[in-house]
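S.,

Sequence below, as promised.
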Amino acid sequence: MRESEGGHNSYDVLILGGGPAGAATGIALKRLDSGLHIALIEKSDYSSFRIGETLPPHAQAVLRGLGVWDAFIATSPMTSYGTRAAWGNAEPYENEFIFSLHGNGWHLDRNAFDAMLRAEAIKAGVDVHINSAPCGPPRRHQHWALPVRIKGSTCELNARFMVDATGRHSWFASRLGVRYQVYDQLAAIFAFYRFDPGSIAVDNCTLIEATQHGWWYSAMLPQSRMAVAFMADAPYLRQISWRSLEEWRSLHGATSHTRRRIENAIPLGTPTLCSAASRRLEIPVGEDWLAVGDAASTFDPLSSQGIIKGLHSGVCAARSICRYVRGHKGALAEYANFIERQYSNYLVARSAYYRVEQRWPDSPFWQERQKTLQLGPEHELQMPATGDVSSDAPARGLSKLSTSAGTDHSSWVSSHKT
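The prediction came back faster than expected:
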């Protein structure tokens, strides 16, 4: 880990959160300007449970652009050849990646993936502090000052620019009083399984299965493990029983395809509940700060965009930060416009794909998601006057990225329905 310059705790950029979005921001910043002094603060040691197990094929371009492709392959991700979805019909249909120009996707060990990005950030020259977290409110005079507890000791870090990469809680932005817009109450019950070597082989496609009150997700992971989740509205989940293994078995026992897929699997612990709501910050930028990844906005897990969105937003944020610190004051407004355009595209795609499922017209879950949602009349989406933070043009040695600013519709499960 690189020592702070001159023994002082002063940085050009301080990144809060070491997930994919925060790590990508740090790596991209150092690729764009190796002279920037950057610190990344991560509260965990990357050993705890982390949700998010799949990367779509077009992630390869972003990983190569960041210069971490070889390190990613070294984590031995499991190849994913596509998705099977019982969506709009009781029988599943195939959405095979073989028809994608980008090739196959991957099932991840998220702990290994995030640790890989941390190692690459350190290699790029970012000061990474794990088991560390803010322990007081941020203050700003000429620069930002933030009290931080680093491995048991408290110190104050100073930075010219702050990046909120703290996930859906948006720790930094919320301390500044920034509000967020919530578009649904989706929650996920997650459970993990393993298969014995002698058990019946399971295909490694991601399986999506719609039901009356929500939908099921399952995907193979490295080391003969599988992630299984039930997505439904939080009020509904409060009304049903699911916390014990027996209750969980009863819940997935009512499915057709998911039940058969895990009948020979061994559960690894009890189910866990987490939020999966679609939400976004009303203002993703401010004076000398911006938010990236889930801290800026969250997508429905159906989109399979969580990790790739975090990586891509980190790259776009890095471009804007570099331009901003060099005197281009409109750079943050351009980044904010990018986030709004991206989310507007997402809401349109979200409603379209939920409308494919018409088997339960009286279900509140499906009724709410089939509505056409918009950002709101107070948000007028405008193209930036100069430049575009999501441009594919290379900058200061950073490789060209092919991910578009809008939602990549090819990742949605219903995109190749036959």
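The first strand starts at residue 10 and ends at 16.

Coffee later?
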